[in-house]
Amino acid sequence: MLHCLMSTRRSLLIRSMLLATAAGTASAAVLLPREVRADATADADSTVFCPFYCDVAVVGAGAAGLTAAVTAAQTGARVLVLEKMRMVGGNSILAEDALTAVDDQRGKQWSDDAKREILAEKHALLAEMRRRGRTINAELDEELIDDSLAAVQWLQSIGCDLETSETRPGSRHVREYRAKEGLSLGSEVIGELLARAEVAGVPVITNARVVQLTQEPSMHIDLEALTMSGRRIKVHAKTVILATGGYAGSLDVVRRNCPNCPQLLTTNVAGATGDGIWLAENLGAAIVDRDAVMLHPTTHALTGTLISKPLRKAGAILVNSKGKRFTNELDVPENVARAVLAQPGGWAWLIGDSSHFDSVLFERLTATASITREYSIARLADSLNIDLSDLGETLEYCRITGATSGPFARPLPATKFVTPPYFAIRIRPAIHGSLGGIRVDANAHILDRQGRVIPKIFAAGDTVGGIYGRVRFDNFGLIGAIVFGRLAGKNAAAEALAPSQTAPAVQRAETPAQTSHQQASADPQLDANNTETETNGG
Q1: How far apart (Å, rounded) are the C-alpha atoms in residues 527 and 40?
Q2: How far apart are CA 465 and CA 450, in angstroms?
Q3: Phi/psi zone of residue 385: left (φ > 0), alpha (ψ -120 to 50 degrees), beta?
Q4: I need a labelling partner for 175 at 20 to 30 A (CA). Which of 29, 65, 215, 313 fits?
Q5: Residues 220-273: pLDDT tens digits?
Q6: CA distances (Å), 67 to each of 362, 439, 469, in order?
């Protein structure tokens, strides 16, 4: 996946920014107190850097955090981003498939009939999301759907090369947007957000784990962050946005929050340990669906490398150790994952042919996963230690019916297995994310346990609970990060820039105007490895 990032026209910029920090000197957008600017370093024996002063402090530099930072900066706020890992991007940089967005019926291009059709599809999608998710906050999921297209268009406006590839099965106006062929979706989105943050003069401090938030009587928020070297960073902010992601990157935290979750690998980056959740909880925030964990049905059985859904959509099927299909491969991920775990040994083979197994995907997977390739079904069965008659019967059924009828019928046909070489990957489900998190209102304000707004604190991304409930649809995670990152950034900046302590009327994010060029500064002494042990992500 990284080869896509490195090959873009922004590769030099992105590589430098991924490794850069911005702690020791202030940029034009973040101020140091006047009395210490002449001597910005602390005493030799001190572990404290002089404090930063900003309007909006963003904790976390994934898609939600960077979106919030760019949005806030484009409204005129001074913004600082703190990221505990050595690299920015979080789980978002690993996104491979698509962003889902629904057409806006308010568009002038739509006829009255089309507008009614769009509204009907929106209502049907929301009804299905609420049925599956069960604990969804109805304000949040409606906001997600209504603002999804504007979020995609905003990404395109800042330079993301996104294309509409197809509509979701059974719909005409629920669309999936993918990066241009050959580009990684996560790298494309994070790369452009980083580039725009640089243009807006937003410093991004890496290796800076926020360990404390304190609300001062002046209604300012004090943040304290620790670096790997033991230095402390102090930040005084008018408002704060928590965008640290979920907790599924730490199997220990998963076990504490969800003791009944199967013992599996994780597709998450190591930084996804739920920091924002406990920071908010220490301030009295309400947490919803704390034990809600989602599974990805197809990761490499030994390494946890994520094998994304497009391979199954293109026709690959799942068979057990006896060569038999046992599920609709395109069912809800949770259902597919549970079906795999119910097979002997809790694993399965993902098999297909070369008609949809392109060289780019093969190159990416072979870097971290073993793939069996054979030029005949007989040799494939032998390599997989499956009886040829059993496997042959399964594949013959796929040739005749496309597996779109009978048991485990698919909405999209399976490959007909007539284009060698044939491939097989041994897969097992993995923990793919946590769905519970901080309770927020429709303006991204964090709420306390009595449902009251905690002043000056916002949240976005996977650190928030209630957006999806206990089940998340495919390809809704990244768009949720963008939608609520924009919302949090817009409203946090509005409160920070308000002339009085009375919070202004908050509103949904709109596509902001272009910003002027400002250069963020860096301090290489903070560029060190994070203390967390990295887990393979996807």
Answers
A1: 18
A2: 16
A3: left
A4: 65
A5: 899 999 988 888 999 999 999 999 999 999 999 999 999 999 999 999 999 999
A6: 32, 20, 23
